[in-house]
Amino acid sequence: MQPALEALPLSIRCARDYAAHARSRLDAQAWDYFDDHAGSGLTRRANRRAWDRVSLVPRVLRAVAHVDTRMQLLGRNQPSPLLVAPMALQRLAHPDGELGSALAAASQGAGFVASMQSSVPLQQIAAAVRNDEGRGPLWFQLCLLQDRAATLAIVRQAEAAGYEALVLTVDATIRAPRPLVLPQGVQPVHLPAGAAFHPAPGWDDVAWLQSASSLPVLLKGVLHPADAAQCARMGLAGLVVSNHGGRVLDGAVATAQALPRIVEAAGGRLPVLVDGGIAQGTDVAKALALGARAVLLGRPVIHGLAAAGAAGAAHVLRLIRDQLRLAMAQCGAAELAELTPELLFPAFP
Amino acid sequence: MQPALEALPLSIRCARDYAAHARSRLDAQAWDYFDDHAGSGLTRRANRRAWDRVSLVPRVLRAVAHVDTRMQLLGRNQPSPLLVAPMALQRLAHPDGELGSALAAASQGAGFVASMQSSVPLQQIAAAVRNDEGRGPLWFQLCLLQDRAATLAIVRQAEAAGYEALVLTVDATIRAPRPLVLPQGVQPVHLPAGAAFHPAPGWDDVAWLQSASSLPVLLKGVLHPADAAQCARMGLAGLVVSNHGGRVLDGAVATAQALPRIVEAAGGRLPVLVDGGIAQGTDVAKALALGARAVLLGRPVIHGLAAAGAAGAAHVLRLIRDQLRLAMAQCGAAELAELTPELLFPAFP
Amino acid sequence: MQPALEALPLSIRCARDYAAHARSRLDAQAWDYFDDHAGSGLTRRANRRAWDRVSLVPRVLRAVAHVDTRMQLLGRNQPSPLLVAPMALQRLAHPDGELGSALAAASQGAGFVASMQSSVPLQQIAAAVRNDEGRGPLWFQLCLLQDRAATLAIVRQAEAAGYEALVLTVDATIRAPRPLVLPQGVQPVHLPAGAAFHPAPGWDDVAWLQSASSLPVLLKGVLHPADAAQCARMGLAGLVVSNHGGRVLDGAVATAQALPRIVEAAGGRLPVLVDGGIAQGTDVAKALALGARAVLLGRPVIHGLAAAGAAGAAHVLRLIRDQLRLAMAQCGAAELAELTPELLFPAFP
Amino acid sequence: MQPALEALPLSIRCARDYAAHARSRLDAQAWDYFDDHAGSGLTRRANRRAWDRVSLVPRVLRAVAHVDTRMQLLGRNQPSPLLVAPMALQRLAHPDGELGSALAAASQGAGFVASMQSSVPLQQIAAAVRNDEGRGPLWFQLCLLQDRAATLAIVRQAEAAGYEALVLTVDATIRAPRPLVLPQGVQPVHLPAGAAFHPAPGWDDVAWLQSASSLPVLLKGVLHPADAAQCARMGLAGLVVSNHGGRVLDGAVATAQALPRIVEAAGGRLPVLVDGGIAQGTDVAKALALGARAVLLGRPVIHGLAAAGAAGAAHVLRLIRDQLRLAMAQCGAAELAELTPELLFPAFP
Hints:
The structure is a homotetramer of 349-residue chains. Chain A has 349 residues and is of the alpha/beta class.
């Protein structure tokens, strides 16, 4: 099965324009599910505002004839610093679901992080993109289940299917439940019936996962510098600065505000990724200038997927990547490594 | 007499949703009475904004299987750091009045501070909740009357009825009068006819109250660090950082801004409580991280009471307590004592 | 001639409520004349916002039984720190014009600064209030005319009529003209026909005025600390921090922001007054805590005058004075001198 | 050909009032072309806000009888520090196009920077204003073409036509394309068919231009202090702090924020000009007080041109110049050199 290409909406100027199209295509429940935020939406708004408050101070005349967005991540060359964030139940957004967004990512050289709550089998996703030369990283996100054997069973599937890293989400195990009536045929296909998330995982569980799998392990949901330091001490492969897009703890610090302190605490010992409110290529440039190695994109990709399937998701990624390339050129940065704090105002940190 | 349980409004997601229900249930005068603010509402808005401007920087993977909101206050174990703030004439909000909110508090393990201007006899309130094992503190709030004997008469009633502490309000004796036509059957049942508040109490009056009653005395309405230091010097049992919810001095500093300086001045010599704009569990977590030992909730409880009587008030308290528990778990704090300044951004102070 | 007392508008809670009444009573030209601001209104809005951004940190339990707003100004005891700012052509607002506002001021113990562009003869104003025991200062405002003899002629009239000080406005000689069609019978009664303002006065002109009149001279329109220092060196009797209510230079610093630096530069060598955006008693308390000795009130008094003549203007002054007294009591300040920087947040300066 | 004078719109109080008139006169495409901004308009809004956040602290009594806006720029006396910014295709705004705005500039003593993408021949522009005694600088703006010979051919035309300096734009070579259907008869008359901009110019290209032309060279589009220092080292004749009016990199720092750091880096070795959001004379005063030597005006001039041709553009320039003169007088600055950082709040830098 390969998604059929759909027509793109007219008059899209930037990735953010897709939100309105998605809203008009989705039923209210599906829209609310992806658009959700905790409490009064304080953190969600803060995420966005924090990127806007960082300004770029471009360099000129650096003779940047070619912009190169390639980078190293976990010892592998990647075409770009963009990844699709792990998001559950993408078939709520579009019948192609995760298959659509994974193909979109591969086509744009972006990475893809499959969610443990995927509504498409993870093997099917991997099979569709694994052999694509130009694709980015293919990672698998999981939360720890109460039952280590059940956790391991899923990890083994991910390993066998060719996923290259495990992204362990650590900020969402305790969360206010939100009622959701799944439409016929949409469900988390890998979650065992009756499976329960580990309500209170600890660093020892992380160590267990590191020892139980040969895959590198990244932690997603780190906001405190002390936790970043612990990640480094434990030899984790990376961490994602994230507040779950403002969906978990309303009042949590904006990721753009947390990022510099995390980068400092990590001290170059492991790559720092970030998500939360990133909606355009200039946000990516700012994130990298603040010290992030790569970024994860959530809602923008869902908006593209909902509006026009794989083609829409790919268009969103291309718009963001193109704007990143444009921003790099405008900042005189031929390579991602040239996106440094000296391009920022106010001065970093 | 026990309040009849009422149906809860549908589609409540958080405590703040009760405000609209209360507004539609109350007549304009009653709504205005509880919703009142001094002047242009500057301080009331500032209270709310100041909590929003404090962000939480959660810790992860601390293996928090159980969250414990128990704490010590005035040498007694309390189930939670929540108390219902003293509010006058609650029968304006609902026929059950203070009885409703006191039962709500007891049912949720929150403390209750009965107002000297209660519209239900304080003995009746105390009788209804005194023997509840799971209840929080039962305190009595008073302003000094011009006549010390009259003041003492009320204090003696509170002592006899089993109230465990006196909360002396010191920020509202001088206040612009607001016309209020009390409906039939609603009145301050303990204020002697013709009683006048002491227009200009001093620290010597506080000392007198300390000596006149065996109950511990807390001061409510402290905003200046120098006054907090004086409270400590006089051996007061506690103080409440409060600007009376923005009802007294428009332009007074927001309580979340005053709190850290008060905590510093108190230096651990007496517990610091706070109220003003606290409307959700994350606000409580922030207050405690800023150094408060407990918080008082005013308007949210009235909104619940007005909307659905004791059941509504209890629901409000449960929503706030649940969100506090959630926030604690999300911050990796198993106990209240783990809510510390290192969880805050911007860094404290 | 004495103004007839008019009925006050109903449902006034604070001085600011008079603005709407004034607007409905005045024709558009008159409203625009008094409500005018330079350019885009940046400074006018900044004035207001700057007072709002200063918070009060009240003291409690200071046993303030009586609040005393008396103060010394230019060696004379004054009932309050309020003065009516000099405003031209007040008969545009109400037939009683300056006579109405002067009587209002005298009745409330506020000072009155008659404008050189008064639409009522200055002798008539002075005669009506001069012998009022309870009145505040009676000052005369002037701009320097190109012709010193003409200037002196007006000064001599003010001296003879009993005015006690000269307020020399120094920020409005160069101003974009604004077309104004004066209604029949409304005109600046003391400005000689064909008189021109001195287009470029200097400090030597101030020295000349000091030597030419036995009255003390204050400067109005000072915003720069260096100019305040010069005022002190020249032995001026006082200065008014003012940006002309945002009517002259759009983009000028807000007076509440300029005030602390001016107070510091004045170093106690001369009294510092302030105007600009002061609309309620708490603003007055903030101004005094920031170091001002007294405040001038402009538009609020015009609003009262326009809405209900002398009675309206008096009501405005009483509301502001009452709120000042309330704020003092709430801050534990029995006297104006107790309004000090330690009552402010953020900390001063 | 000389433009016919058109009637000015009624009820214009300041230059900004022309925007509405322009909008009603232009078709949507033309309006959008000039009003365009990159991305979400973040930088465009930031430009404007940054000027508003700088306040002026005027001096008084400096006996400023005459205000003199003359200044030296590139060794030539100029009547004012205002220049019309280089803008392409001005015949989209009005049939007179660049001829109208150049004549407007000359009539007001403002400089004119002709765009390489002028829709009127540069010789015709120069011929119309070159011999005007009272005019300001006449400069020619260019981007480097891929073909140095083609670039040089245009430079030679500019030299021959009497242009006095070259303004090399360095921030817009890499830009997201925007579709534009040119109306009949409107086109960039000097751009060779098929000419391509140099996609990645470097400092060596600047050096080449310096050596290839006898005209002084200024750089436009500098935001980073390090680039300003490089300009100084290369002996450039000047630089323009600019983010292209927010049209190029959305998220670029506001020019008023970048300016002080650039001035510091330039260290007086070359004049610093600035544009971006300047819309009134007080903005010009602020820019000069922050250290700029002159300012460029873009959209305001186009709005005047669109609304009323040369007369409208001249009116805009006159309003801004008059407000500058007024602001200078109100600040006690008889000459531009007296607009210094000590007139600013917050204190500079």
